[in-house]
Amino acid sequence: MPEEQRRLQITVIGLGRVGTVAAASLATAGHCVLGVDIDPDRIALLRAGRAPFYEPGLPAMLQSAVAGGGLRFEHRDAVAGPLGDIALIAAGTPPTPGGGADLSQVRAALAWLKSLPPGDTVAVMKSTVPPGAGQRISDGELRGAGIRYVSNPEFLREGQAVHDWRHPDRIVIGAGPGDTQSVAVVKAMHAGIAAPCIITDVTSAEMIKYASNAYLATRISFINEIAALCGRVGASIDAVSDGLAMDARTGSRIYAGVGYGGSCFPKDVRALDHLALTSGVNVDLLRSVINVNNRQRLLPLYTLRERFSGAVGGLRVGILGLAFKPNTDDIRDAPSLDLIRALTGEGAIVSAYDPRAMPAARPHLPDSVKLAATAAAAASQARAVVLMTEWEQFVNADWTDIARRMRPPRFVYDGRNALDAAELTRLGFQYAGVGRSAPAGRAIAPPGGKPSGLRWPGR
Ligand SMILES: NC(=O)c1ccc[n+]([C@@H]2O[C@H](COP(=O)([O-])OP(=O)(O)OC[C@H]3O[C@@H](n4cnc5c(N)ncnc54)[C@H](O)[C@@H]3O)[C@@H](O)[C@H]2O)c1
Fold first, then answer.
1. Most buried in the list 131, 154, 334, 374, measured by CB within 10 Å?
2. Is this structure's pTM higher than 0.70?
3. Contact at 8 Å (CB) between 388 and 322?
4. Which domains does the chain carry?
5. Per residue in 368-400, pLDDT tens?
6. Active-site annotation holds for 264
7. 343 Cα–ligand 1 center, Å
8. What residues contact 176, with CB distance under 8 A and at least 6 apart?
9. Whose alpha carbon is nearest atom 10 of ligand 1?
10. Cβ of 45 below 6 Å from ligand 1
């Protein structure tokens, strides 16, 4: 049988948001998959076909893959190895206090792999590790261990991860010189996925991942700066963004808002900045991108201060959305958390609602913040409401009811430029968005497209 049609034995190490989607998707594609993790609760949930986090489409896929026998889960300590054709490493790489990438989970996974009886296993790094790390791992801890190493960075976006796994823009495979055998195995892992494949060295593959995130971050911070100027001179950021999107040289539509967030995007941009710093390379542009984004998260606070005579002390504010984007319960590095801390720090009385992310957010919020049962309840008695995540249910909320529950001046800050400014103004709200102040009509529709709140660019 040709290599690219082979049913592979794959062990996924680390069952977080990437590893779980990978394991379920690979099993669904016909491979024989074992998922391992060090968290016993996670293993128990997954065995029952339940996802440990919110990701649309994932539970159904997990249940059918587990029932079909192609997907099993084990605690790491119960696995004796060898691990089959591929050990797919998807452990976390959180930020260090200094802004670098903490590789301790990944190193522990590799140490475990090395401790098992030898097999013909390729270590495929799905976790995002800084450019140069894979080469150091190959030359260091894996030297002489008989384990081949491949970088295969992941680009999926939370909230649409199941779709993104099946439909990536590209597949990146970074392998050692002449290691065609490993490349063939990793290509076989992607059998059935119609996407262009770029084969390169390990360090370039790692850099493609970081540069992709940094480039998107640059575009977001750029449009956010343009939005600030639009607001000042009276230009429409919606029209300007549409106009920019029609320029083939500069890429797709990008949306102004209260900044990028999430578990990967900000940490990866900071890690690239950290890598540059430790490598003695100036990346002034990247540093500015980070600064713009930090400021952007507090835009609603600046605007509220302006609207409410310079101070927010005692002001009741309803926050709609805690997750860093819609369709996920992930609150890691979410702009909402920074904003809420700043608001409460200045004495505002905050009530918040999110359809999925409230349990995850609670431990990260000041005790004074009330978590409401609905969007309307979060807005009750508030003089101002801030939209921080463009969940469809906020975009399509019953704003008449919200207006009734709020107190004057019923100020709405649309942190994602996702709401219908003209309609809200008609309903008696005072409206402001990012670079938008006057009613701009139903402005969120891309040219020729349908209005949708669900368009925040992912990582
Ligand atoms: N979340 C995303 O959308 C996304 C997208 C692209 C790339 N990435 C990258 O993928 C990697 C994983 O991200 P995530 O969000 O899934 O992480 P996560 O923190 O959600 O999950 C990591 C998992 O690894 C497990 N783990 C830790 N050490 C382990 C070990 N030694 N052996 C076995 N399991 C271990 C943890 O228990 C946890 O379940 C990161 O490098 C991240 O930057 C994430």
1. 334
2. yes
3. yes
4. 3-200 (3.40.50.720), 224-433 (3.40.50.720)
5. 999 999 999 999 999 999 999 999 999 999 999
6. yes
7. 31
8. 138, 148, 149, 182, 201, 202
9. 127
10. no
